[in-house]
């Protein structure tokens, strides 16, 4: 009889859709309501901007100004919906700039991580003499706004013929991204357990081998985070590209957009201009959306130990 | 297989006046299982890490076999170590973890595969060889760590509290397993633990450490039966030994409720008039009130096979001697109940008044001033 009752109860039992909150916590307190309101307004505003950008990149200038939030019609009706993108890509040199940017950003981000990871490992784990002050020295680098050193940098680079040169810009990107990368990865390496290195030492692995085969694979999350954050930052970098690059065939996307902006204003080529903005913005946005979880996981790892 | 010799091994930590390990002399015979035991911070792990080469040796020497390894890197010492948290490489499979050292040593692939299979068979890990550590249970991880040590066929095994992350039941099982493996391979082994049950059950010899100093190194029965000082007496044995202050006059130690005659040797080696009498919980007979020490039962712990009764003495005076040298801080000065072992299921109840009669031949006598044992 008892067994029967239990069996019947089991079929009737259903877990709650939402587990009960702990007693005393208010689901709709004032802080929570205000917080939710702010977050949703912020999100809605950004989504609206994104919609406007994408929609406008398919519109004619007249459509953009007359009906800013409507759907694009004209170019679709003419059967040439990608006209603005074609214009930006071909006429404004975005195609070439895209290639330049991809190569430059990839090379610079990979180099930054390749240099930064061993540096961070040595600073955080190898007990290098003066590792404390050295780590702080790198951290200070993050506090110096690069805008303030552009002029001395330009003068120095022009003396060694590295202005208007992609190699020069690459060197600048690597150097200026190192402080943050080293700082991020130092925290990351520090969070890895010391016993693994000791075990590797007992197993007979040299420090270099320990770094390459044990610590690097474990720091993968941190390395990917550093890579992505640098890639996004460098992709959007404009000021250095404007100052250091002169020739069209060396322009990065951000630099090309800047020139295009100047030209498009006079030609009323706003559709093409906005398509250009979309070409600059969307790839990184997509990359971020795809890898967001990884980036956030990497940034907060080691924070809560 | 080789003996391990520590001569005056000393280790200072930066910013510390006292050495973590102080002039340690210790010899571990070939094939012996030595357990290093002591409270946290006593220097036992540091000692192990010095043997492993993970800590420098500030003074003294360490030898393995006939080699002086004091300044040798860990990889050149021919040792294997099992860490408390196992330190398995999380990104490698069990197979790769176990074979890591052999691969670095560039052993032929066939030999590596053979050794791994052998170790996996021995430890019941054959099914798990292609899994990553995160997919294993605590016990399996522990065995992988053991497997990694075994495949090396080292001269010395070093084990740093390898069982402390396991649950109680598994710990007892694994304890037996490790001891059996050690006997089978007959590899010199140094095993660090803070658990005195592990120390007493596993080791050929037990080395008790406190404050960086070796207190006593002897076989488990010897340590239990003849602790050299108050620290060893109070550290080894569970529940802990009862320590009662007494005053010596005319060759007899007297405390309220009992008397104990000192032998001639004991009387001769005594430095003052005060002694501490150590009586283990099993060295008592419970009698009617009025016989022996008057006591009131405060707590009854029934274990089934045994029963422990915790008693306060009549006047509520602290039973334990005030801070005898070398006794852990937790054991000093505070009134502590007398612990007495009785037969399981005995009908004692809380609040009952009883008389406690010590079994005098089982008493350990210590000089209250020096904390040292008075040999009879």
Task: Please report which band the strand proportion of chain A falls in: under 5%, 5-15%, 15-25%, 25-35%, 35-45% or over 45%.
Answer: under 5%
* Helix content, binned percent of chain A: over 70%
The largest contact between protein chains, plus residue counts on each side, is:
A-B, 14 and 19 residues
Main structural class of chain B: alpha+beta
Gyration radius of chain A, to the nearest Å?
A: 26 Å
Number of helices of chain B: 9
Uncertain runs of chain A are none
Which percent range fits the helix content of chain B? 10-25%
Order of helices and strands of chain B: EEEHEEEHHHEHEHEEHHEEEHEEEEEEE
The total of helices of chain A stands at 15
β-strand amount of chain B: 25-35%
Quick check: average pLDDT of chain B? 89
Give a quick account of the main beta sheet of chain B: strands, pairing sense, barrel closure. Answer: 6 strands, mixed
List the helices and strands and how they pair.
The complex is a heterodimer of chains A (305) and B (376).
Chain A: H1 2-12, H2 30-56, H3 61-66, H4 74-77, H5 83-91, H6 94-125, H7 131-143, H8 150-159, H9 166-190, H10 194-203, H11 207-218, H12 220-235, H13 239-244, H14 253-267, H15 270-300
Helix pairs in contact in A: 5-15, 6-7, 6-9, 6-12, 6-14, 7-9, 9-12, 10-11, 12-15, 14-15
Chain B: E1 4-11, E2 21-28, E3 33-37, H1 44-52, E4 59-64, E5 67-68, E6 79-82, H2 94-104, H3 109-123, H4 138-150, E7 156-160, H5 168-185, E8 188-193, H6 196-202, E9 205-210, E10 213-218, H7 220-225, H8 230-235, E11 242-249, E12 252-255, E13 258-261, H9 264-269, E14 274-279, E15 284-287, E16 293-302, E17 306-313, E18 338-343, E19 353-358, E20 364-367
Parallel strand pairs in B: 3-8, 3-9, 6-7, 7-8
Antiparallel strand pairs in B: 1-2, 1-4, 4-5, 9-10, 11-12, 11-14, 12-13, 14-20, 15-19, 16-17, 16-19, 17-18
Helix pairs in contact in B: 2-3, 2-4, 3-4
């Amino acid at each position: 009889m008892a067994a029967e009752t239990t069996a019947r109860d089991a079929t009737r039992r259903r877990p709650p859709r939402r587990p009960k909150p702990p007693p005393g916590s208010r689901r709709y307190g004032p802080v929570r309501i205000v917080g939710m309101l702010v977050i949703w307004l912020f999100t809605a505003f950004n989504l609206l901007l994104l919609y406007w950008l994408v929609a406008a990149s398919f519109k004619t200038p007249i459509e953009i100004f007359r009906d800013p939030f409507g759907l694009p019609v004209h170019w679709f009706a003419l059967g040439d919906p990608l006209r603005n993108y074609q214009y930006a890509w071909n006429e404004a040199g975005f195609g070439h700039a895209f290639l330049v940017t991809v190569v430059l950003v990839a090379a610079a981000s990979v180099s930054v991580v390749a240099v930064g990871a061993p540096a961070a490992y040595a600073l955080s784990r190898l007990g290098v003499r003066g590792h404390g002050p050295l780590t702080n020295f790198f951290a200070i680098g993050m506090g110096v706004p690069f805008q303030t050193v552009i002029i001395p940098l330009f003068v120095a680079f022009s003396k060694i013929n590295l202005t208007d040169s992609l190699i020069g810009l690459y060197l600048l990107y690597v150097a200026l991204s190192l402080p943050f990368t080293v700082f991020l990865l130092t925290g990351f390496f520090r969070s890895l357990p010391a016993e693994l290195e000791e075990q590797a030492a007992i197993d007979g692995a040299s420090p270099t081998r320990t770094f390459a085969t044990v610590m690097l694979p474990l720091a993968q999350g941190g390395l990917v985070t550093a890579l992505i954050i640098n890639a996004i930052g460098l992709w959007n970098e404009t000021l250095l590209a404007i100052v250091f690059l002169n020739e069209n065939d060396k322009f990065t996307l951000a630099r090309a957009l800047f020139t295009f902006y100047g030209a498009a204003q006079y030609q009323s080529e706003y559709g093409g201009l906005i398509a250009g903005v979309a070409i600059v913005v969307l790839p990184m946005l997509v990359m971020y959306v795809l890898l967001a979880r990884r980036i956030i996981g990497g940034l907060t790892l080691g924070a809560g130990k | 297989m080789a003996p391990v010799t520590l001569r005056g091994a000393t280790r200072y930590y930066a910013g510390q006046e006292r050495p973590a390990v102080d002039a340690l002399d210790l010899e571990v015979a070939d094939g012996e299982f030595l357990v290093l035991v002591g409270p946290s911070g006593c220097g036992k792990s540091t000692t192990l890490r010095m043997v492993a080469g993970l800590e420098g040796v500030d003074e003294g020497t360490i030898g393995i076999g006939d080699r002086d390894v004091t300044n040798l890197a860990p990889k050149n010492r021919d040792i294997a170590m099992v860490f408390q948290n196992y330190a398995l490489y999380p990104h490698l499979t069990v197979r790769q973890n176990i074979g890591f050292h052999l691969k670095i040593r560039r052993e032929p692939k066939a030999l590596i595969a053979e050794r791994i299979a052998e170790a996996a068979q021995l430890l019941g890990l054959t099914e798990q060889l292609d899994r990553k550590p995160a997919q294993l249970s605590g016990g399996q991880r522990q065995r992988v760590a053991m497997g990694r040590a075994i495949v090396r066929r080292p001269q010395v095994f070093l084990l740093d509290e390898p069982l402390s992350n396991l649950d109680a039941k598994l710990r007892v099982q694994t304890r037996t397993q490790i001891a059996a493996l050690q006997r089978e391979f007959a590899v010199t082994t140094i095993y660090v633990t803070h658990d005195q049950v592990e120390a007493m059950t596993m080791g050929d010899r037990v080395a008790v450490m406190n404050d960086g100093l070796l207190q006593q190194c002897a076989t488990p029965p010897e340590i239990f039966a003849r602790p050299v000082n108050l620290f060893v007496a109070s550290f080894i044995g569970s529940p802990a030994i009862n320590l009662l202050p007494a005053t010596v006059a005319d060759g007899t130690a007297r405390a309220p409720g009992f008397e104990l005659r000192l032998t001639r040797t004991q009387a001769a080696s005594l430095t003052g008039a005060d002694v501490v009498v150590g009586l283990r919980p099993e060295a008592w007979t419970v009698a009617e009130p009025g016989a022996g020490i008057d006591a009131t039962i405060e707590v009854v712990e029934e274990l089934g096979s045994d029963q422990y009764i915790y008693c306060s003495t009549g006047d509520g005076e602290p039973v334990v001697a005030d801070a005898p040298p070398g006794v852990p801080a937790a054991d000093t000065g505070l009134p502590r109940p007398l612990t007495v072992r009785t037969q399981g299921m005995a009908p004692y109840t809380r609040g009952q008044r009883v008389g406690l009669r010590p079994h005098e031949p089982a008493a350990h006598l210590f000089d209250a001033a020096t904390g040292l044992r008075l040999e009879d």
